[in-house]
């Protein structure tokens, strides 16, 4: 049995990750073998016994971290959030600009604190924009490698044929275009941390090579026989479910276990809404600083919207929105300053402004609180512009080129205005008219294609 033989080759000085991996190999051997010979059963039993012995000998450090990740959150959950954050500060924890005191975030930070001084691999998962890269930097900053390089690699952004050279470097002439010797990311990260972002996108061939580096702590440049020792701490991140990918055979199970010795999950922003007000204030101030302006004020309508929005792009989206409204608004920002695709279904209008009741059934907000005069003017002007365009599109049955000609406007400028107002020419097509010829079809497609 090949798998069993592989197990025996693993060195006896085993780490927690290696141990988990061996247990998994045993488990999958048992799961997949249709019938076991007596000799194989004996071998598995011997393996199980030696694993048990090794578990007993786990290093103090590893047991400490393991216990911290599993047990501590329950204990410290009783502590108030403020106290937990303060305790981190008192222990000189470096937050790297991580804000929020949601219990799930604090739990992740506390795990990061424990994991940071060790060299154990950490896997961070969470949706895009939840702060995975920031968390990786937090782990780096709180460890003993903080003054050494932090090298970030986006595994999803490297073409398959360049992956190996990107990660491990190459020798001059190793392939067409390799005009010089080149260092890979692992070598650059030597003595520091390598952040493998979007690890779920790594092709299977790359996974095998990565596994080898994790086991042997050495690399070979493409086209070279020489092995180079690398001492790199690995932090990986993914927005995919690696466990599921490995069940589907798309991600190597052994690599998954190697990488996820410490596993941190960052919850989406919609599951930690209590952080939104703090983040709004923080990013509002940050944007004001960057843009050299006074912090923007928000109308109750916009604030209400921002507090209830679903944030598919998570914290990154909230940050971008605060920068956008800080840039576009005068003293006071309103929902009209939001990107078109984010605005609430019934966009704010001057008419609605004087009589607005939010979807949550609150009382209408008085005009005085709602927006500044200049914002009100802008909203009214936007509304007039939109109504004009809608009427025009109806008249020309959605033919953008014709409308541009009639109102004597540059066509691409008109496309831009349509986009700004979320208008689609195809919605104005005359449904009774016979289907358009090539030109007509192109017309509509063009308008919709870049939206
Ligand atoms: N808890 C947080 N406090 C402050 N800023 C955050 C927080 N989490 C994420 N950010 C910011 O949000 C943006 C996206 O974070 P990033 O780490 O790149 O997310 P991901 O890698 O998960 O896509 C960055 O600008 C980051 O600084
Ligand atoms: Mg990222």
Topology:
Elements: H1 2-9, H2 16-32, H3 38-56, H4 60-76, H5 81-90, H6 103-115, E1 122-125, H7 132-141, E2 150-154, H8 160-168, E3 169-170, E4 182-183, H9 185-188, E5 193-197, H10 204-216, E6 218-220, E7 227-229, E8 233-238, H11 242-247, H12 253-259, E9 262-265, H13 276-291, E10 297-298, H14 300-308, H15 314-328, E11 332-333, H16 350-353, H17 367-370, H18 373-395, H19 400-406, H20 411-420, H21 438-449
Helix pairs in contact: 2-3, 2-12, 4-6, 5-6, 13-15
This protein binds adenosine-5'-diphosphate and magnesium ion (MG).
Tally of helical runs: 21
Largest sheet entry: 5 strands, parallel
By secondary-structure content and strand pairing, the structural class works out as: alpha/beta
The strands making up the biggest β-sheet line up spatially as: 2-5-8-1-9
Task: Give the C-level CATH assignment of the largest domain.
Answer: Alpha Beta
Radius of gyration over all CA atoms, rounded = 29 Å
Terminal Cα separation, in Å? 56 Å
Helix coverage percent of residues?
40-55%
- Low-confidence blocks of residues: 1-13, 70-76, 347-370, 433-451
The count of DSSP E runs of length 2 or more, i.e. the number of strands, is 11
- How many domains? The number is 4
From the 3D structure, determine the CATH topology of the largest domain: Rossmann fold
* Molecular shape: globular
Q: What's the architecture of the largest domain, going by CATH?
A: 3-Layer(aba) Sandwich
Mean pLDDT: 81
Specify the CATH homologous superfamily of the largest domain: P-loop containing nucleotide triphosphate hydrolases
- What are the bound molecules? adenosine-5'-diphosphate, magnesium ion
Tell me the strand percentage band: 5-15%
Domain Sigma-54 factor interaction: 98-327
GO molecular function: ATP binding; DNA binding
Keywords: ATP-binding, DNA-binding, Nucleotide-binding, Transcription, Transcription regulation
Protein name: Sigma-54 interaction domain-containing protein
């Amino acid at each position: 049995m090949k798998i069993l033989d592989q197990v025996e080759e693993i060195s006896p000085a085993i780490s927690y990750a290696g141990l988990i991996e061996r247990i998994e190999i045993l488990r999958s051997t048992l799961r997949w073998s249709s019938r076991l010979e007596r000799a194989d059963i004996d071998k598995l039993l011997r393996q199980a016994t030696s694993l048990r012995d090794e578990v007993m000998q786990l290093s103090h450090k590893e047991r400490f971290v393991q216990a911290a990740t599993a047990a501590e959150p329950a204990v410290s959950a009783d502590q108030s959030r403020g106290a937990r954050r303060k305790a981190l500060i008192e222990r000189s924890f470096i937050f790297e600009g991580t804000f929020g005191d949601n219990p799930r975030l604090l739990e992740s930070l506390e795990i990061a604190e424990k994991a940071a001084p060790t060299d154990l691999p950490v896997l961070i998962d969470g949706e895009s924009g939840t702060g995975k890269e920031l968390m990786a930097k937090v782990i780096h900053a709180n460890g003993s490698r903080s003054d050494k390089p932090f090298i970030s690699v986006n595994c999803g952004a490297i073409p398959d044929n360049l992956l190996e050279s990107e990660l491990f470097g190459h020798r001059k002439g190793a392939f067409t275009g390799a005009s010089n010797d080149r260092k890979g990311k692992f070598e650059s990260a030597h003595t520091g941390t390598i952040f493998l972002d979007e690890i779920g996108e790594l092709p299977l061939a790359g996974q095998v090579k990565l596994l080898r580096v994790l086991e042997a702590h050495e690399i070979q440049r493409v086209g070279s026989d020489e092995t180079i020792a690398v001492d790199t701490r690995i932090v990986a991140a993914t927005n995919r479910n690696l466990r599921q990918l490995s069940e589907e055979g798309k991600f190597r199970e052994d690599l998954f276990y190697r990488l996820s010795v410490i596993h941190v999950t960052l919850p989406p922003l919609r599951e930690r809404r209590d952080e939104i007000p703090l983040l709004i204030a923080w990013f509002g101030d940050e944007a004001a600083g960057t843009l050299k302006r006074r912090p923007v004020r928000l109308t109750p309508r916009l604030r209400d919207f921002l507090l209830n929005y679903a944030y598919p792009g998570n914290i990154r989206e909230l940050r971008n929105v605060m920068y956008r409204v800080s840039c576009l608004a005068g003293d006071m920002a309103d929902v009209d300053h939001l990107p078109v695709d984010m605005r609430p279904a019934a966009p704010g209008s001057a008419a609605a402004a004087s009589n607005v009741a939010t979807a949550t059934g609150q009382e209408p907000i008085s005009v005085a609180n709602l927006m500044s005069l200049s914002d009100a003017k802008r909203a009214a002007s936007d509304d007039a512009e939109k109504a004009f365009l809608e009427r025009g599109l109806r008249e020309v049955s959605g033919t953008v080129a014709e409308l541009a000609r009639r109102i004597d406007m540059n066509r691409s400028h008109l496309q831009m205005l349509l986009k700004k107002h979320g208008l689609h020419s195809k919605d104005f097509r005359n449904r009774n008219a016979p289907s358009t010829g090539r030109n007509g079809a192109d017309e509509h497609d063009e308008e919709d294609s870049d939206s």
